[in-house]
Design goal:
about 270 residues; 10 helices; single chain; eight-stranded mixed beta sheet; alpha/beta
């Protein structure tokens, strides 16, 4: 195994470990499944009954199920079997029959032919990727080269002067976190991949810190106290870009900025 393959394998183990633990709390979190946020994603992608959708790093199936309500078919793929188990439960709860689930590594060549999905989407995955550009290139490969192929990425985007501090803190909470991108970095990446007519949307995911940390699994459990201290010290300073503040007395809340970015596949 080459050094790069060893690093990738170790990182995948970290992801599986984290998201096996997070599978149930993640799938139940209203911050992950907020209907208004999903509606904004569906509308910005202009999803319709003719679409064949691929959802990369689909997690507990929230995005796949949202699209399956209005498209022809959706396929969700995720590295963590426990997440796919939760996705199947959600699909059954919603009575959807037009979804296929796969356990697979999206950082390798995807197990799909070229040009077969009209819409390829991933949500909250890019900050976990060692090489997001290579994943975007695979998204483009499997995306339809006809008149309606689109690619959508939804992820955390932090202001340039705050992103390094955010990444440092987030790696403490979640060892599988690699790096959040700035808005400019994400857009440049999509342009480099040859995507055109790029459209964007924005929203913020609000959290109560104590609830957020209850669903977190840092490598060292004592780091949860460290996180509480870091967040408390950032109130009024916003060095992390999370608008950390008190509500209901001394309860710490914060807001994570999210970007939806949709581009059309270049047609020669």
């Amino acid at each position: 195994m080459s050094p790069s393959e060893s690093i990738s394998s170790t990182h995948n183990e970290s992801i599986i470990s984290q998201f096996t633990k997070q599978a149930i709390p993640y799938s139940k979190s209203h911050n992950v499944s907020n209907e208004n946020e999903l509606k904004q994603l569906v509308e910005l992608t202009k999803a319709n009954r003719n679409d064949i959708v691929l959802d990369l790093a689909c997690g507990p199936g929230i995005v796949s199920c949202a699209f399956a309500k209005i498209v022809n078919h959706a396929t969700g793929i995720d590295l963590t079997p426990a997440m796919i188990d939760q996705a199947k439960i959600l699909q059954k709860e919603k009575g959807l029959t037009n979804i296929t689930w796969k356990v697979g590594d999206i950082t390798k060549k995807l197990p799909f032919e070229d040009n077969i999905f009209s819409l390829v989407v991933t949500r909250y995955s890019f900050h976990h990727l060692l090489d997001p550009m290579s994943v975007l290139e695979e998204m483009q490969r499997v995306c339809d080269s006809g008149s309606h192929g689109r690619i959508a990425i939804v992820d955390i985007t932090i202001e340039p002067d705050k992103v390094d501090a955010f990444n440092q803190v987030e790696r403490i909470r979640d060892p599988s976190h690699v790096r959040a991108l700035t808005f400019t970095e994400l857009k440049s990446m999509m342009q480099e991949a040859g995507l055109t007519n790029i459209k964007t949307g924005h929203y913020k995911v609000t959290h109560q810190l104590s609830e957020h940390l209850q669903a977190s699994f840092p490598q060292n459990p004592e780091d949860l106290d460290k996180m509480r201290q870091i967040f408390a010290e950032d109130i009024g300073k916003n060095r992390l870009g999370l608008e950390i503040h008190f509500e209901e007395g001394n309860v710490i809340h914060f807001a994570t900025p999210i970007t939806i970015m949709v581009g059309e596949k270049y047609r020669s």
